[in-house]
Amino acid sequence: MDCQEVIKKSVSNGDAVVPELEAQEICRSFSISCPPATLVADREQCLTEAQNMGYPVVIKIFSREIIHKSDVGGVITGIYNPEQLKKAFEQLMDNAKKHAPKAEIAGVIVQKQMPKGVEVVVGGLKNDQFGPVVMFGLGGIYVEVFKDVSFRLVPLDKEEAFRLVKETKVYKLLQGARGEKPCNIEALCEVIVNTGRLLAAFPEIKELDFNPVFCYPDSCTVVDARLVLK
To answer: Long-range pairs for 152-161 at CB < 8 Å and ≥24 separation?
Structure first.
């Protein structure tokens, strides 16, 4: 199924957001890297996929009725072996039943847990007056606290994306703080440019949110991708 068909299917299903795995596939088609992830139906499949993928892993509840997984305890990280995974799977299901009892659970997403990098956010929205706009800044749980973000109109090239990055305080972290290796800022700029391309390609997408994006000395990876539909 190509990207346009994925979007159309989500719209016809009345989805508020594109389902996570489909959102990741759309990202990859625009050369935006995401961690390996797969959908499983039960605990045994979860164990098998985690073994194939390699620990550590993250598991997430999958339901079209649950948009913000973290709010219902629907994400468990730091799972390093099968015993931890068995307990985490049961906990995930208990959390979903407790906090979203009416939600239809379609399965569990098993995702490779990526090593920590510098956390940034790359986002975008459709402005009624100016059209598509991309956003970049400090990511993770602090994005709403520090509001260290800057914006640019789409389309933009890598040079403009670099200027966007330099406007933020997180740029100093990306350069390498306290002896840390500098991140690959060129790879980050490619993610920003390709995010603009993605946003402009689909009029059905109202906004998108990649948070966190982990930046490393050799690459950048979108850990969580959210595409919000009109």
So the answer is: 152/196, 154/124, 154/196, 154/197, 154/199, 154/200, 155/193, 155/196, 155/197, 155/200, 156/192, 156/193, 156/196, 157/193, 158/186, 158/189, 158/190, 158/193, 161/136, 161/188, 161/189, 161/190, 161/192, 161/193
